[in-house]
């Protein structure tokens, strides 16, 4: 019984921390009222691996990690029943990446383009982007060796993730979430994104349930 209570308290603490790490613009409702389609672009990744590899090898691995997050987010947003939860659609990342390539925009230079430029090129209303700081290859899975207490205490910090949504017309930041990555975060990139988004229940701005609650608040 005590163990179950301990786990429940840890879960509540995790949810509270997730909510603390969320930023939402006071102008979100105004700037997003005409949003219909969002594009997810590859995440900019910074690797600090212990392995002795060349800078070129590190750049290739970082690029792979950035595309892995893009793929995991598309999977989450477009997966079965989850897809019906959102008020917007998400551009197919194959189309996104193809359009970027046609305009000579690569992983290496995408951060030199503004949100407004990318939104216009991709013909979308907003951009989902972000950053990863990693000391492991998350797409390959986090190390399997860990103790029971390591899992619940979240020891072994593997880096941080930041996900943000920016308005296409103005380029303004609308929403952002940041958190550290550890053993509790998920066994790989897809698992991390799935768990992360589930923690953000009713905090993700395009969630239909969140909007329903806001429009019909409980009366005292």
Please explain how this structure is put together.
By secondary structure, the protein is an alpha/beta fold. Helix content is 43%, strand content 18%. It has 9 helices and 7 strands; from the N terminus they run αβαββααβααβαββαα. β6 and β7 form a beta hairpin. It is globular and about 50 Å long.
How many angstroms separate the termini? 35 Å
Provide the gyration radius in Å: 18 Å
The residue-averaged pLDDT reads: 83
Low-confidence stretches: 1-18, 147-154
The secondary-structure class comes to alpha/beta
Shape: globular
The helix fraction, in percent, is: 40-55%
Q: Estimate the strand proportion.
A: 15-25%
The helix/strand order is HEHEEHHEHHEHEEHH
- The total count of helices amounts to 9
Number of strands: 7
Q: What is the makeup of the main sheet?
A: 7 strands, mixed
List the helices and strands and how they pair.
Blueprint lengths: L1 H19 L1 E3 L3 H5 L4 E4 L3 E4 L7 H24 L1 H4 L5 E2 L2 H10 L12 H8 L3 E9 L13 H6 L5 E9 L5 E9 L7 H11 L8 H8 L5
Parallel strand pairs: 2-4, 2-5, 3-5
Antiparallel strand pairs: 1-7, 5-6, 6-7
Quick take:
The protein is α/β, with parallel strands linked by helices and 220 residues long.
Give keywords.
single chain; 220 residues; alpha/beta; seven-stranded mixed sheet; 7 strands; disordered N terminus
